[in-house]
Amino acid sequence: MSSINGKTIWVTGASSGIGKSLALKLSSYQCNLILSSRNKEELLKVKELCGGSNTISILPLDLTNHHQMEEIAEKAISKFGSVDMLVNNAGISQRSLIIETKVEVYEQLMQINYLGTVALSKAILPHFIANKSGHYVTVTSLMGKFGSPYRSGYCGAKHALHGFFDVMRMEHEKDGVKVTLVCPGFVQTNVAKNALTADGSPQKDDDVATQNGITPELAAKKMISAIEKGKFEVYIGGKEVKGIYLKRFFPKLLHKVVLKSHVR
Predict the structure, then answer these.
(1) What is the three-class DSSP state of 62?
(2) Per-residue pLDDT tens digits for 138-156
């Protein structure tokens, strides 16, 4: 029997991309789902695609509203009486050179990708501790492990998530709290189109690497496998995953490989 059965799972960024695919796959399990994003209409569509049952609830959420996270967490808990797992999937990417990027863009990336995720995770932590059980599944990126041009602020925010959640795991293992960090590479989503450019406007255009990435359905499948195995970290993607090991053992070689890749 799957360890997911019987659990209540809260997924952020559930209206599209990996989050949507994860919700669809999880809906085939015997679990309760809470689906969050800023777009209520899209969440309702995802709920219907998942079967529209009373085991699926939507909860609109904007990660920039840090001061509202405790209230949001209470609402999530009230949906089914408990939350067993929080999937921190919501976020936004970037495509701009450092020299051209406004500081306000870096602030926005940190507000959403890092501080919003931290605020939400802290808000649900007392509930996990009280239950002596809880699982954070935080979607970072391969860019949380090594860097790439045009993604400086995105890389910075994702690296920060690794630092925070590694400590979360250490401090609260005694409380039954688990942490799985999910590091996708290129996945066929709208991440590039929605990415912030130097002035904070969306890029609107896709890129070849993203178009040629793995499907969000495959990413979701691999995520569920990692969750069930209780992995600390999982790396998901194509050949770009090799960058993890190049960074660890041959950092200068990785530097040369990334510069030659012309990834935009």
Answers:
(1) coil
(2) 999 999 999 999 999 999 9
Q: Is 262 left (phi over 0), alpha (psi -120 to 50) or beta?
A: left
* H/E run at residue 177: strand 177-184
**pLDDT score of 220:** 98
- The domains located in the chain, with CATH, are 8-261 (3.40.50.720)
Query: Sign (positive/negative) of CA torsion 134, 136, 231, 1?
Result: positive
- Residue 135's DSSP bridge partners are 85, 178
Q: Is 154 a catalytic residue?
A: yes
- The closest alpha carbon to 178, from 145, 214, 210, 138, belongs to 138
Residue-wise pLDDT for 52-66, tens only, equals: 899 999 999 999 999
Nearest to 94 by CA among 192, 185, 210: 192
Type of residue at 260: K
Rounded CA-CA distance 41/162 in Å is: 32
In this prediction the pTM is 0.96
The catalytic position among 136, 154, 235, 245 is 154
